[in-house]
């Protein structure tokens, strides 16, 4: 089977969609499928609308058996694009969803034609609200190729995902991949037929996390046997790391030796995050460790060094950080918003707290720090959930079965 994946960025770029497509692509190649990825030449999607950071060279390369073609992104007319998008949205003008999507980008002038000429048996594109989703749909339809959209919809983000054009695109696709039951039900509520939606979930390499050892990490940062609260998330305003920082004084009031680990890729928000940390008292500031832009193979040991993972974000389509924590045998704390309650079984493998409530989050952290046996039981339950539902083998087999079904229908 010849598969084309279209994604906003690809390895060595870091992000949830990037990691998902990398693993899907490489595992399909290991099953003897031929996989090509069409992507952009950026490391971070904010380069679609800002002139910031380094770029990769456009062109074609092979990465672990996957053919990767990077397209050059046009990010000019930034001020005009932003003014048109913000003004039309504020005034609720017709086609403001298109203007917002053009502002977000990526603007690539030859991707639709390339997708139509790819010769793929099936095309999958991820993720909304980016413009390449529409290139993929248009190119696949032009070629008569079945097209699957994996939207990774963040239902609470009205600016990014309340776009009529997006739901029209989903209706035109041959199938839609939802990462959670919450996303499936949300789309059914928007009029998308249930039969068009396949719930697949995200994946994790359980064995890699089971082998993790946090001792060296604790030694490196001088944590000793202190309790460690961790968060694995891109340093983005959307991840609400500020809420966790504001929750920690409630924790330190009872556990003054508790450590906070913030691990994730830097973004334009990182300086603001650093200012929040600098605003803490000297004693509390010394309890916070920020690890930026670490290598993917460092993640298991960083997780293993933590006693629990707190994930304050409400801007999630799945919550990959949660299942990675479970694979490492760690309990999680998530926000009671969006898809998170459909992933976390409250009281079984984690706790849920009110979104944007530092006090509630602090109380939940204290509750788990006070009960090692409960933490252990929750971590074990989470690991078993991952083994049964979220290994890369399981989720890739689900995706490949969907591809085969669509291809067979096209042949008939």
Please explain how this structure is put together:
The chain is globular. Strands 3-4-2-1-5-6-7-8 form an 8-stranded mixed sheet, sandwiched between helices. Strands 11-10-9-12-13-14 form a 6-stranded parallel sheet, sandwiched between helices. Helix 15 (320-327) packs across helix 18 (372-389). Helix 16 links the parallel strand 13 and strand 14 (350-353). It contains 19 helices and 14 strands. The protein starts with a strand and ends with a helix. The chain has 2 domains: 2-203 and 391-411, Glycogen Phosphorylase B (Rossmann fold), CATH 3.40.50; 206-389, Rossmann fold (3-Layer(aba) Sandwich), CATH 3.40.50. It is an alpha/beta fold and 412 residues long.
**Might you state the CATH topology name of the largest domain?**
Rossmann fold
Uncertain ranges: none
Largest sheet: 8 strands, mixed
CATH class of the largest domain: Alpha Beta
Element layout with pairings:
Elements: E1 2-7, H1 16-30, E2 34-40, E3 59-63, E4 66-71, H2 78-90, H3 96-104, H4 111-116, E5 122-126, H5 132-143, E6 147-150, H6 158-161, H7 164-172, E7 175-178, H8 181-189, E8 197-199, H9 206-210, H10 215-221, E9 228-232, H11 241-252, E10 259-264, H12 270-278, H13 282-285, E11 288-292, H14 299-304, E12 308-311, H15 320-327, E13 332-335, H16 340-343, E14 350-353, H17 358-369, H18 372-389, H19 392-411
Parallel strand pairs: 1-2, 1-5, 2-4, 5-6, 6-7, 7-8, 9-10, 9-12, 10-11, 12-13, 13-14
Antiparallel strand pairs: 3-4
Helix pairs in contact: 1-19, 2-3, 11-17, 15-18
């Amino acid at each position: 089977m010849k598969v084309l994946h279209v994604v906003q960025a690809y390895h060595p770029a870091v992000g949830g969609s990037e990691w998902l497509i990398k693993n899907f692509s490489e595992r399909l190649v290991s099953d003897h499928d031929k996989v090509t990825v069409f992507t952009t030449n950026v490391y971070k999607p904010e380069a679609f609308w800002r002139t910031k950071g380094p770029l990769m060279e456009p062109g074609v390369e092979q990465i672990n058996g996957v053919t990767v073609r990077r397209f050059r992104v046009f990010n000019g007319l930034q001020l005009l694009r932003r003014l048109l998008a913000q003004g039309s949205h504020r005034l609720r003008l017709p086609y403001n969803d298109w203007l917002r999507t053009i502002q977000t980008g990526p603007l690539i002038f030859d991707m639709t034609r390339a997708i139509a000429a790819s010769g793929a048996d099936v095309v999958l594109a991820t993720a909304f609200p980016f413009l390449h989703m529409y290139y993929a749909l248009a190119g696949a339809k032009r070629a008569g190729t079945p097209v699957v959209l994996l939207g990774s919809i963040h239902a609470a983000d009205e600016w990014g995902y309340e776009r009529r054009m997006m739901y029209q695109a989903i209706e035109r696709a041959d199938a839609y991949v939802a990462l959670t039951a919450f996303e499936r039900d949300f789309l059914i509520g928007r009029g998308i037929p249930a039969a068009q939606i396949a719930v697949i979930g995200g994946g994790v390499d359980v064995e890699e996390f089971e082998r993790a050892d946090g001792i060296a990490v604790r030694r490196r940062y001088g944590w000793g046997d202190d309790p460690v609260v961790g968060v694995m998330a891109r340093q983005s305003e959307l991840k609400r790391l500020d809420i966790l920082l504001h929750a920690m004084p409630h924790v330190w009031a009872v556990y003054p030796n508790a450590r906070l680990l913030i691990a994730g890729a830097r973004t334009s928000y990182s300086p603001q995050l650093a200012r929040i940390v600098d605003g803490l008292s000297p004693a509390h500031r010394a309890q916070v460790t920020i690890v930026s832009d670490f290598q993917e193979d460092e993640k298991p040991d960083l997780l293993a060094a933590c006693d629990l993972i707190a994930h304050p974000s409400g801007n999630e389509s799945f919550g990959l950080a949660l299942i990675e924590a479970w694979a490492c045998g760690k309990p999680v704390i998530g926000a009671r918003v969006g898809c998170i309650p459909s992933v976390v079984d409250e009281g079984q493998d984690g706790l849920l707290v009110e979104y944007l409530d530092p006090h509630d989050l602090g109380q939940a952290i204290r509750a788990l720090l006070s009960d090692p046996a409960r933490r252990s039981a929750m971590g074990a339950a989470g690991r078993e959930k991952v083994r049964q539902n979220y290994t890369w083998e399981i989720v890739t087999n689900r995706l490949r079965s969907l591809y085969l079904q669509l291809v067979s229908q096209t042949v008939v």
